[in-house]
Amino acid sequence: MDFTGNLFIGGDEVRGTAGTMKALNPATNAHIEPSFSLGGAAEVDRAARCADEAFDTYNATTLERRSSFLARIADGLEAIKEELAQRTSLETGLPIAQLEAEIIKSATVFRQFGALVRQGRFRQATIDPALPERQPRARMDHRMQKIALGPVAIFGASNFPIAYSVAGGDTASALAAGCPVILKAHNAHPGASELESRVILQAVKDAGLHSGVFSMVRGGGNEIGEALVDHPLIKAVTFTGSEAGGMALFQRAQQRSDPIPVFTEMTSVNPTFVLPAALAARGAGIGDGFAERMLVNVGQACLKPAILLAIAGAGFDELRNAMIARVQAMHARTMLTPAINVAYRKGVERRAGTGAKRIATGGDERGPWEGEAVLFQVEGAQLLDVPSLSEELFGPAALLVRLTDFGQMEEIAKQLRGQLSATMHIEPADYALAARLLPVLERRTGRIVVNAFSHPQEVSYASIHGGPFPATSDSRFTSVGMSAIERFLRPVCYQGFPDELLPEALRAANPAHVPRLIDGEVR
Ligand code: NAP
Fold it and tell me: Boundaries of each Aldehyde dehydrogenase domain copy (predicted)?
């Protein structure tokens, strides 16, 4: 593939007005050809106008047509799997096989959203028929369906360059809802972003859709992201990244004259609670499994299990030794970007300075931006005294916490900030304690896992990738799973309408056979 390095705005390839950049291969510290163009507020304005122009026709596409558009993107991604994985690997240091799996997962997600759209259930079509005889006042016919919010700005994440980036779940769910997308590509993988964008643009063309349905912009600093959040034609924003970045964008959006929703996914340590009977029965297996998952993606995953809490007693030493063995066997590996690697090294130093004991270290660094795996241990009382020990350390590090008793486990659980997930390892003899811990966890997390690990995340109807702040900025929604579409929808009620003027899903004939709630009953 010959890259043009252009921005893609409303079907046109555009040379940005803010200079150029090159991708960096973090494994060699060498820049990779070619140059990629950078844009700013002018390019955002053009993309937002194109998206706004596209909105009405795209939002009105039949469910069948929108569904096959999403399936075309899935086919397109699979068709460039090898090329996309190779380029992405150069830009991120992630292994090709892992990236190929990520591409297949993303393609599957586009197909899943295609199937969801075809069903039409996301419309939540609801009909309260007229009650002309009702006393003391007749009821008019009321019908409700959900429609798309409008053009959406999506910030691609650095750590999953496909599944949380240009052709990721945010894009799939926004397009499924009927929202045109302006994608702010992450500068850590510009080549991958161009390849993914081309797949989506080709699908827009093949499906005969308005060219403003998808644009991709890229910038050299905060200006472009700020312009996206500020633009009056943008109606929602999604973001995956740091707490500082997410909160800056969230607060900016609330200061607009017309505030808009900003769905940020920021930080989570996904605590793992090992209860006594499980610890005694399978401490070594739990320790090994935990350490294996904490090292996936060189620890650069929002669902990395980062803290394990267990009560001193039978099985504790086996668990600890298994964690140490797994971490020591891990070679240092290339991290996504120099900035992420530097932040990781500083975070490790900071943690060591708080009195946490380094109990295992992986193999030495050989490449420029490699991160060495580190396992720290603290006592429960230390964690209670220094709550910052439970903050995310993005990279291959984790914390083992030795507790005196279950009361301390409960106390620490209550002190934790909002999480994407929490895990309990339990045996039947632990059920009474687990039932005590459960309400504490429900208040702090969006997903509770039993006898497995938080990573990987399933993409299904019931899956939730969300949680109380600071895991996300809005705990009512998920960014992964089929209900991710709800972030981009809003309800509209049609009162007293003639059948001919009603949206298709609310007409008497219901031609697309959309499931509906009629007078409070599912039909
Ligand atoms: P980031 O710095 O938060 O940046 C994410 C995206 O948002 C980038 O496109 C960035 O643009 C943009 N951005 C950030 N702050 C902005 C602001 N104030 N105004 C406008 N745009 C802004 O995240 P990152 O680059 O992926 O990684 C940095 C750190 O974030 C990591 O070390 C890690 O701690 C955390 N992180 C966490 C997760 C997680 O899943 N928990 C995932 C990824 C990153 P520019 O690149 O142009 O600045």
Answer: 18-457
- State the catalytic residues: 265, 302
Q: How confident is the model at residue 497 (pLDDT cuts 50, 70, 90)?
A: very high
Question: pLDDT digit string (tens) for 3-48?
Answer: 999 999 999 999 999 999 999 999 999 999 999 999 999 999 999 9
Give Cβ neighbours of residue 509 (< 8 Å, ≥ 6 apart): none
Residue 343 CA, closest ligand 1 atom number = 32
Considering the segment(s) 11-130+138-266+474-487 as one domain, its CATH architecture is: 3-Layer(aba) Sandwich (3.40)
Per the CB < 8 A criterion, the answer to whether 322 and 291 are in contact is yes
DSSP letter at 308 equals E
The alpha carbon of 74 and the centre of ligand 1 are apart by a number of angstroms equal to 27
Token duo for residue 162: 């496909």
Pocket of ligand 1 (CB under 6 A): 155, 157-159, 184, 186-187, 219, 221-222, 225-226, 240-242, 245, 248-249, 267, 302, 340, 343, 394
pTM recorded for the entire structure: 0.97
Residues 6+ apart with CB under 8 A from 481: 458, 459, 460, 461, 462, 463, 464, 465
- 44, 154, 158, best to mutate for ligand 1 pocket (most atoms within 8 Å of CB): 158
Tell me, in angstroms, the distance from the centre of ligand 1 to residue 266's CA.
9
User: Distance from the CA of 466 to the center of ligand 1, in angstroms?
Assistant: 18
Q: Give residue limits of the domains in the chain.
A: 11-130+138-266+474-487, 272-450
441 band by pLDDT with thresholds 50, 70 and 90: very high
Q: What is the pLDDT of residues 351-391, one digit of tens each?
A: 999 999 999 999 887 888 999 999 999 999 999 999 999 99
